[in-house]
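Need Putative glutamate carboxypeptidase PLA3's 3D structure for a figure. Predict it.
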Amino acid sequence: MAMVKLKLDSVWVKRRWPQNVFAVIKGSEESDRYVLLGNHRDAWTYGSTEWVEHNLINLGCKAVAYLNVDCAVQGPGFFVGSTPQLDSLIIEVTKKVFS
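Structure prediction for Putative glutamate carboxypeptidase PLA3:
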């Protein structure tokens, strides 16, 4: 079983719509590497291209995966798609989930 320790530092401001949300959950192994989570709200809008351009070197060296979660909760079933390189990992991980 995996454990996640979450530390939240937040500042309350006047209510407004978020444009870019960024968070970091540090891992205990290879903590200098990235797994990015995103969805359709962070694509094709002002800011997403500029963010990638600004972080291109780190993304190329340290990013190991991008998980698109624009339909993360939808319906009663589990549906996943990936590049072929992740197929065996997805199968292995889903076998560990109790249903």
